[in-house]
Structure formats: C-alpha cells, structure tokens
Amino acid sequence: MNQRELKERIKNDPALTASEKVQKLNELRMPYKAMTDEELLQLVRDFTEENGREPMQADVLYDRELKARFGPWNRMLERAGTRPVAQSYLDKKRRRKEKRERHKEYRRQIREQEAAEAERTATETAETAGCAERAMQAGTAE
Fold it and tell me: Where are the alpha helices (DSSP H) in 1-142?
C-alpha cells in the first residue's frame, strides 16, 4: 500500500472520529519532522524517479512538512529539482528587487531634502535671532 492509499484509507474510515483521523495521520507524519530539508527533498526526487511524475500533495504523507519548510508546492518542486523555476517567478522576483532599489533611493532623497530644510531653517533662525539682538542693543543704546 502506498502513502496515498494509506492516507485515503484513514480519511475515509467510518469507524474513526475526525480527531482520531487527525491523530493517526499526525503519528504517520512524525518521522518526517525529524528529517533534514535535503532528506525530504530527496524523498520527492525518489518519488519522481519511481513514478515518472511529480508528487501531488495527496501522494505523500509528509506534504504538510514540505509546505511548512519550503512554502508553496511549486516552489518546493523547483527546489527539489524536479521542475524548472518558472520564468514568471524569476521576473516577479527581479521586479520586486528593482522596486526596493527605487524606493530606497527615493527615501534617501527625502532624507537629504529634510536635512537641507532643517539646516536652512536653523540658519534663518540664527540670522533672525542675530538681527533681533542687534536691534535690542541699538534700542538700549539710545
């Protein structure tokens, strides 16, 4: 019996309650939690080699562990090397990087403008204070 059939048998067993089904499935998944990332990816590669196709989530007991560690199913398959990285994903990643760089430059320019404005305000305040002081000295001298 393969993992898919075992999983289906537990899910469709009328003698088990919902919590018992979850408990049985979690017990079967426990050994996979202790495996390293590379070992899990190797299991995916082995499945692909044995069956001539990529695994679906229903095919393996450790699907939740794969999703938890590697994110979306397609990214996990790409990471395992069973599927080439999608060009749309690479394009999206490149656009995000470019946007971050543009925004970083924009924030730098805003900081420079704010610093220049603060310096200009400080200079004007100092000049105004100097004029007022001279006027008061001139007023007290008379």
Answer: 3-11, 18-33, 37-51, 63-70, 73-80, 87-141
Nearest to 70 by CA among 96, 47, 37: 37
pLDDT digits (tens, 9 = 90+) for 6-36: 888 888 889 889 999 889 888 888 888 889 9
Rounded to two decimals, what is the model's pTM? 0.58
Amino acid making up residue 59? D
Tokens representing 34 are 């202790």
Buried b (16+ CB within 10 A) or exposed e, 99-119: eeeeeeeeeeeeeeeeeeeee
Instruction: Using alpha carbons, list the distances in angstroms from residue 30 to 47, 53, 61, 92.
Output: 19, 25, 10, 35
